[in-house]
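Record format v2
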Amino acid sequence: MSLLLEGILEALRLITSFDPDLLQIVFLSLRVSVIAIVIATLIGVPLGAFLGLKSEKKTRLFNKIIFTFMGMPPVVGGLIIYLLLSRQGPLGVLGLLYTPSAMIIAQVLLATPIITGLTLVGIRAKGTEIVETARSLGADSALATWTVVKESRLAILGAVITGFSRIIAEVGAVMIVGGNIAGRTRVMTTAIVLETRRGNFELAIGLGIILLILAFVINSFLYNIQTGGQDN
Amino acid sequence: MSLKVLNKPLTKFMLCILAIGFLATGCTQEPAPEEEDPGGNLNKGTLTLTTTTSTYDSGLLDYINPIFEQETGLRVEVISQGTGAALETGKRGDADVLLVHDRETELELVDEGYFVDRHDVMYNDFILIGPEADPAGIKAAGNAVVALGLIAENESTFVSRGDDSGTHRREMKLWENAGIIPDEEDWYLSIGQGMGNTLNLADQTLGYTIADRGTYIAVKDNLELTLLFEGDPDLSNQYGVMAVNPDRHPHVEYNCVSKYIEFLISDRGQELIGSYQVESEALFFPGFGLE
């Protein structure tokens, strides 16, 4: 218990110290996960909307695959990207391994199925009805789809929040493809693992608390958008 | 809460999930047979050994511990950590016995009363690994400090464990002796991971690194990197065994721990350590009583 208290004090000390190494780690965590979630959203929402509006029978197998990938262990995702980007791998010439770009790619791989799957479910809940209504009001199919996406924005925001929570808290994949290199690819979660292994438990807990605070701020922001949508 | 809620399908579904969750944890927490011993110590006959990743990855303990277990009827559970974390775990009393490699710190902690019965138990050595082309030319270096100096001068990539392990601590001592502070340099990658991952990352970046010979032999088939420098006395790697002080942590089963330590430093234990081979190379040499 005392260690938890020390951890909270350590977190406060870290936050108030504006330690440049810490800021760099925090900033990199945010940069990687925000870019990854934007890319995953751009892929996942249209794909989920498309699948959600298709007849269930035709897309059954594909949907099952998406749902399976929602539960992919991050280490496995990381390993796949590692093997692709490794010097001996097919994309080795790009020289992306152990860079933030590799971490973004791995996180996109983890977040996209989640956003796709949850969007799909959300759209399917009321999609066909809305499409028929929109069509009857003279919308073409693109506009009808857009209408569905707009009407399902609460579910989609939920999908994005879930995806973001997963990747900002994820450690297995970024450790493998990023390498946890100090000053280059070290993020909050890999730093926490490192400090735990070093036996610096106060620092590890402190970093964990900062990560939770960040997640709280970001989720509050998204939550406000969501409830804002509800009021309209 | 109204009971009507229980009839809703969604609630039923949630309750099912919860029930499954409880069942699952119930399974994993099922008490081991020896924990049923009513009056006695919960972990009777089991001792927890915390050791370095390098020892663990070498497979040595998988070779020795079953023999000890068979002869004594005790059970050894092994946790693998960097030396820094292993020492911290021991200081907190979360383990019974340690097998680590940072001699100076070990002796300090014995003096401070955290540990007792420390013995040198075995040794091997650290080696410098790098790309075959050896751009910094460390092959011809006179000693390890000079070799690191050449790497720094040439600004060749150097991958550091950076995890406060015994290997990392030795590396830092060598840099210190070379009068170099590498932390802020662009060519210096501190990755905070175990030996296997460090070798792998060095391999991918065509960098240099320092490794314990045991891990290197165990994984070298997967590496393009090659052994470039060895044999400096500064690179000797001494492993020590010690018990968590039972006066400080009364739950430590000192009797069992003593048996384990005695086994390791016995003629038989020492012979076992020396006879352990990977790819027909010995990884450790018996080290008790050499000082």
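Chain A has a mean pLDDT of 88.
The interface with chain B takes residues 86-87, 97-98, 175, 179-184, 186, 190-191, 193-194, 196-199, 201 of chain A (CB under 8 Å).
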